[in-house]
Amino acid sequence: MTQAFDAAAQQTLLESRVADALDQARQAGADACEVGASVDQGVEISVRLGDVESVELSRDQGFAVTVYLGQRKGSASSSDASEESIRAAVEKAMAIARHTGEDPASGLADAELMARELPDLEVHHPWNLSTEEAIELALACESAGRDVEGIENSEGASFSSGEGVRVYGNSHGFLGSQRGSRHSLSCVLIARDARGMQRDYDYTSERDPARLASPETVGRRAAERTLRRLGAGRPRTGRLPVLFAPEVAGGLIGHFLNAIAGGALYRDASFLCDSLGEPLFPEWFTLVERPREVGGMASSAFDNDGVYTRDNVFVDRGKVASYMLSAYSARRLGMTTTGNAGGARNIRLEAPLTAHDDLLARMGTGVLVTELMGQGVNGVTGDYSRGAAGFWVENGRIQHPVEEFTIAGNLRDMFASLQGLGDDIDTRGSVHTGSWLIGEMTVAGD
Amino acid sequence: MTQLSHSPLDEAITILLAPGGLDAQALEPGLEHALGPGVDYADLYFQRSWQESWVLEDGEVKDASFNIDGGVGVRALAGEKTGFAFSNQITAEALAEAGRTAAGIARGGSRLERVAVSSTSASARYAGVDPLTGLTPEEKIALLKQADRVARAADPSVAQVSASLSGVHEVVLVRASDGTLAADIRPLVRFNVSVIAIRNGRRERGSAGGGGRYAMSRLRDDNVAERYAKEAVRQALVNLDAVDAPAGQMPVVLGAGWPGILLHEAVGHGLEGDFNRKGSSAFAGRIGERVAAPGVTVVDDATLADRRGSLSIDDEGTPGAYTPLIEDGILTGYMQDKLNARLMGMAPTGNARRESYAHMPMPRMTNTYMLAGRDEPDEIIKSVKRGLYAVSFGGGQVDITSGKFVFSASEAYLIEDGRITAPVKGATLIGNGPEAMGRVSMVGHDMALDTGIGVCGKEGQGVPVGVGQPTLKLDELTVGGTQS
Fold it and tell me: CA-nearest residue of chain B to A98?
């Protein structure tokens, strides 16, 4: 981009700063310590109604140190990794560790679990684009959308491109680095009819710019998604099957993953406490993690504890096969880490897939949900109640758009009544999934 | 209210500029770099923050962290265009580079005539203290342990208690090409308790918390550890007895205080200047029109003493203000920053806010609340044959274009024949902002503000906010329970 970013030089610099910080912490008396540092640089451009709205150049740095005094712990972080800030952070972390209480579970992950080989996962694809070229892409995107008949206003198109380096090291002698990039283009359009205005959007986001959808495709899809919402009514209140479109189905996987995350489990704050081996999904459903997938959105060879990442199976033929654990949460539960400090990396389904039209036919009469609103998911109980918008479906055919309704149930019941997965896989995020057909939920509308 | 003396400005200059070898004079060449040809407004926003958080779990404070952040954001405007760059170094070189980058937004033109500096005179809405030093580490830990003890003693079903104490000491300085020179020292503290209660295999969460712009010692003096621990346990126990919520349209009574997030979602976001300038809000072009039932008056008020959402000056240096938005049901104003106010031919309202120096400012809410009406809260409940009484909420969201909003109850009850009966499980409520505000039929006299827990997100930027309202009745709203 317009600012030079020398990833290799940044990596060398951060690695030496992390090593320095580890030395300083040891000299200050820490029994163990860990340090993370990162730098990201990027540009974000917004255009609206055919003209540039904003050009934003960013360069974010972060630095965090955690020290252990026996089983006591202290952490400090700073927005820059200058030598002075590192010194101050180490000092502050040590001061905190003298006040915190003993925690038998605290400490680094076991030394033998540190990642040994760090293969290049091909997630760093810099894009040397000038600001002018980036503006052209965003303008082309918005213009393709606004050219579609019926689009009357726009919230604009945005282009963003960035790359960065993250380094993690600890007093086991582990020092890992990873470079990465991300490029995105999005567009939000507005249409109006007698009932009022509607807006919708589309986006493309990739680590490798060569894989981005074309600006015209994004603009046109945003227009189509907006126009199809016009004339929305409300569905009737009742018990109905619900088809979650891919862009919202990923959220269901997210709720499941949150519930098997160690942090929720050891706090008794999950509806899936003590669920290992329990049948939760239909027998044909398997959910896996592929953290070392080449080019994957969330690929990494080591987790936030420095532990090597490995393929995990979280759901095996319908049953909860593994929790998702860091070194700390594993110790709290008397288990071993699954290499998931920092979360899940590249979630994939292993299950039979059904064509979208066949899923609609299987549903018969119900609602197709394309947008969810609000935070009405209770991870402690699994109770689910969210605002929604989408389409009314009768006899397997989309009839008309619907909005201003809620869908409610309990995640356990929803997972158990999963009736099919679509082949319309959305690959833009780190969770890849198609549509989910849930047997029955309560729809509240008119 | 005390008048801001020169001290916040002097203090900000010392804290923000001196470490990089700069003084007040260095602001002028810094601004000059951003005022390239064709730029019609530029500003420099310096910020430094010290954030501390202490977390208790399993009866011990096992984790605590400290964060230091700081830098300068430089913005250049040319018509509707914005150029923005920032640096986490506050040095002459960083100012020059960020300034030139931001100024690149303008494609040539005349240079702006310089306006003489005028220090902003604003009333202080909170004391410019460092809130983190108000308690010693031992006292902070003792406060958290007290919450743990009180919660566990309150009921045998309490299985887990977590409590947190956090505070931010923030110093900001704004210099803008319109002459603005303003500084603010912003304290912000918060105490939170969350419990899990387990009974007969069923588990539920309860949580409570609060805070504001003052020293941490006030949390101790206000006895928040005991109050919020008891409140969190009470809520968890209520939820252990909760039955499935109803589904469908019904009258809804909202309790006073935090349920004011209804206003935040249903009308607040839709009245932010940027959405209205772009015509993307359901409220665009409707000033002077009826957008809510008579009796409904909603204001945004940055001037409340010591509140979480209050601002002595906003992030463009405009003094925080009391801005009526809806008066007796009629739309009277939008919330504005300088850019949108200028483009709409209106005055800034002190609502420019940004998450940090690394983010661009936007029109945002401060404390948004509905003024008290005349109805007895008891009479409001009695007027409902069958409906929902919701007293606490999780989060909400709005689509400002279609006007659809949601918010999710975390404590609610059935109303049957004018009486509050069984507690029901949390349910999401959904409606259309302008329609819902038109269905407000009773407004209580019991206006209350929330306890100081709100965070509002917009375009990825989070800022602290306040909400409030009296008990009020909406004749019809869709309740998203499971019992149809």
Answer: B137
Domain end marker among A227, A251, A279: A227
Nearest-CA residue of chain B relative to A85? Answer: B68
Supply the Cα-derived Rg of chain B in whole angstroms: 24
Give the end of a domain, one of A195, A211, A227.
A227
Mean pLDDT of B329-340: 97
Q: Are residues A16 and A77 in the same domain?
A: yes
**Stretch A387-397: mean pLDDT, rounded?**
98
Question: Which residues, in sequence order, are CB contacts of B259 under 8 Å at separation 6+?
Answer: B390, B391, B392, B393, B469
Residue A351 buriedness (CB in 10 A; 0-12 / 13-18 / 19+): buried
Answer whether B426 touches A (CB < 8 Å).
yes
Tens of pLDDT, residues A288-341: 999 999 999 999 999 999 999 999 999 999 999 999 999 999 999 999 999 999
Q: Which two tokens stand for residue B176?
A: 């803008």
CATH number at A133 reads 3.30.2290.10
Decide if B394 and A375 are in contact by the 8 Å CB cutoff.
yes
Q: Which residues, 6+ apart, have CB-to-CB distance to A9 below 8 Å?
A: none
pLDDT of residue A3: 59
Q: Indicate if A97 and A222 belong to the same structural domain.
A: yes
Residues A16 and A151 in one domain: yes
What tokens does A65 get?
């140190």
Terminus-to-terminus CA distance in chain B, angstroms?
53
The reported pTM is 0.96
Please state which CATH class domain B7-240 belongs to: alpha beta
Q: What's the half-sphere exposure (Cβ side, CA atoms, 13 Å) at B371?
A: 16
Question: Which A residues, 212 through 231, put their C-beta within 8 Å of a C-beta on chain B?
Answer: 229
- Mean pLDDT confidence for B387-416: 95
Task: Check residue A45 and give its pLDDT.
Answer: 97
List the domain boundaries for chain B.
7-240, 247-480
Give the mean model confidence (pLDDT) for residues A16-42.
96
Q: Which domain holds residue A47?
A: 7-227
Q: Is B424 on the interface with A (CB under 8 A)?
A: no
Q: Of B465, B482, B472, which is closest to residue B444 (Cα–Cα)?
A: B472
Does A60 touch chain B if contact means CB atoms closer than 8 Å? yes
| Chain B CB within 8 Å of residue A185 CB | no
Residue A46 shares a structural domain with residue A156: yes
Q: How confident is the model over A169-184, as a mean pLDDT?
A: 97
B121 pLDDT more than 90: no
Residue A286, min C-alpha distance to chain B (Å): 28
Q: Which chain B residues are Cβ-neighbours of A48 within 8 angstroms?
A: 80, 278
Interface predicted TM-score of the whole assembly (ipTM), two decimals: 0.94
- A391 CB contacts (<8 Å, ≥6 apart)? A228, A367, A368, A370, A398, A399, A400, A401, A402
List, as ranges, residues 68-107 from B with C-beta within 8 Å of A.
Answer: 68-71, 80-89, 101, 104-105
